[in-house]
């Protein structure tokens, strides 16, 4: 039987060479390769553990690790995945008007608005410390934004914050309202304690059902 198998193997290899399917130098290696069958190679897939997992954020088209700072003027940033290792992810000051659309932010402190305006539509802010900190005469408008941190929202001075939809969560406090800060929540979910100074204002409006 051994001679017959050797003869058949030799005839098969000769036929493949004659048809141009493989070269002579490949006969020895291919004949011993269990993934080579009848003149065609069966693809060898890498082990499951070796396959790389690629994480994508729906709608996000670019990634940035440097903090974003707006000092004066107006700026719009869209479709950005922002991963900052420094102390603050986004800083707004100098009367800047910053508009963020579909931005996913992760940082030690998320967004700090010292003097200016932040408008954010869709996306999320995830912080180790404070998610959104507004002070002075800052103005913040959030629409369908998920904010989270040890403190979700911290507002002081005469800052004005308006949130529609989305959520504000905090492992220590969802919100800390100081001085004469004013916060209006319209259908925004709040998860965590709320600390509110006597002169600070907090207004909650139930979500309005859309008419058919």
The gist of it:
The protein has 212 residues and is mainly beta. Helices cover 10% and strands 51% of the residues. It comes from Plesiocystis pacifica SIR-1.
Layout: helices, strands, pairs:
Layout: H1 2-18, H2 27-31, E1 36-37, E2 40-41, E3 62-64, E4 68-71, E5 74-83, E6 88-93, E7 96-107, E8 109-113, E9 116-127, E10 130-134, E11 139-143, E12 146-155, E13 160-164, E14 167-177, E15 182-186, E16 189-191, E17 194-196, E18 201-205
Parallel strand pairs: 3-5, 4-6, 5-7, 6-8, 7-9, 8-10, 9-11, 9-12, 10-12, 11-13, 12-14, 13-15, 14-16, 14-17, 15-18
Antiparallel strand pairs: 1-2
Please explain how this structure is put together.
By secondary structure, the chain is mainly beta. The protein has two domains: 2-46, no CATH class; 62-205, Single-stranded right-handed beta-helix, Pectin lyase-like (Pectate Lyase C-like, 3 Solenoid), CATH 2.160.20.10. Helix content is 10%, strand content 51%. It is built from two helices and 18 strands. It has a 16-stranded parallel β-sheet that branches. A two-stranded antiparallel sheet has the order 1-2. β1 and β2 form a beta hairpin. It is globular. The termini are far apart.
